[in-house]
TrEMBL record:
Subunit structure: Homodimer.
GO molecular function: carbohydrate derivative binding; glutamine-fructose-6-phosphate transaminase (isomerizing) activity
Covered range of the whole protein: 240 to 606 of 606
Protein name as annotated: Glutamine--fructose-6-phosphate aminotransferase [isomerizing]
Active site, per annotation: K362 (for fru-6p isomerization activity)
UniProt subcellular location: Cytoplasm
Amino acid sequence: EAAEKGGYPHFMLKEIFEQPEALRKTVAPRIKDGLPDLQVEAFTDELIRSVGKIHIVACGTASYAGMIGKCALEKLVRVPAEVCIASEFRYNDPILAPDDLVIVISQSGETADTLAALRLAKEKGIHTMAIVNVVGSSIAREADSIIYTWAGPEIAVASTKAYTVQMSVMYLIALKMALVRGTLTEEEVRRYCEIIQAMPEKQQDILAQSDTCQYFASRFQNAEHLFYIGRGLDYALSMEGSLKLKEISYIHSEAYAAGELKHGTISLITDHVPVVAVATQEHIYEKTISNIKEVTTRGAKVLLVVNDRFEVKDDIADYILRLPTTEDVLMPLLAVIPLQLFAYYTAVLRGCDVDKPRNLAKSVTVE
Ligand code: G6P
C-alpha cells in the first residue's frame, strides 16, 4: 500500500496533488482547435438547442460539483438548471418535461440512488447524460450520453480529484451549449477554453502553498463547530469545503449563504466558532466582506480565501489565503484546493483516519 501511495502519507493527499494532471487528462481530449468538442454520442446540436431545463442529479460530493455546474450553466447558457439529490429525486415524482435534460454525476458510477434516478428519467423518456469516472460502470452503461472524467482511480473515501474533474466537465458542457445556443460568442468560448487549459499550472501554484494550509489547519484544529460562508459560486464551493472537513475531521461544520447568516445562524457564532469565508466573485465579494465583519464582531476567528485581484485589507480576517486570479466563473477550480488541504491537514492534526473515515463507504451501492 505504501508503494501505491507514491510517497504520500495518505491517498487523499496524493489525490489532491494529482488534480492538475487529472484536469489536463479530462479537458485536453475535449478541446479541438480551441473549441469544446465533447465527442458525446447523442448530444447533438439539435438536442442542445431544444433543452428547456436541466436537472442535475447526484449524491454527496458529486452533487456539489453539480451545484457549480448549475451556476455555470445558468450564467453562461442562461438555461434553467436545478440540482437534486438523487435519493430525493427518485421518490419525489419529479416534474420532467420532454425537452428537459437530466445530467447524473457519479465518481463510481454505481451509487444506488443515482442509478435509480437515471432509470426513472429514462423511463419517462427524458434524455440522460452521465458524468462518470469508472469506465464501464452501471451508470455509464445505461445513460444515453456518457462523458468520462479521467481522474484515474480515487481510493480515499473523501472525494477530491473526482470533484474537480466533474466541475471541469460541467464547464465544458456549459461552453458547448453556450456556443451552440449563441449565448457566448465563439471568441468568448475560445477564451474560456484557453483559460481552462492553463488551469493546471495555476492549481500547481496553489498546491505549492500547502504548508500555509497546514498552518491554518493548526490554528483551527480544536474547533468543535465551524461555519463556511460565501455567496453564489462561493456558496456552492463552501458546501464542498464544509463536507470535506466534517467527513474526515469530525468537526461539525455548516456551509451558509453569507447573506443568510443574520437570519438565525449568527446566534451560534462565538469566539469558539471559527468561520471560513470564500470570496472569489467580483460582483459580490464586498458583500461577503461585510458578512465577515459581522462575525468578527461576535468574536469569530476568520480564515478568508480570496481572489488576489481584490483589494482586501490584511486586517479584515485573522488569516488570509490569496488565490491566483482567473475568470470568476472558473474560480472554483482553484479555490477548492485550499479547502481540501485545510480539511486534510485538520483531520491529520486531530489524529483521524483520513483515508477511511468512520461509518463512510467509498461507493454506496445499497439504498
Ligand atoms: C459516497 C462517498 C462520497 C461520494 C458519494 C457519491 O457517499 O463517500 O464521497 O461523493 O458516495 O458517490 P459517487 O460514486 O456516486 O460519486
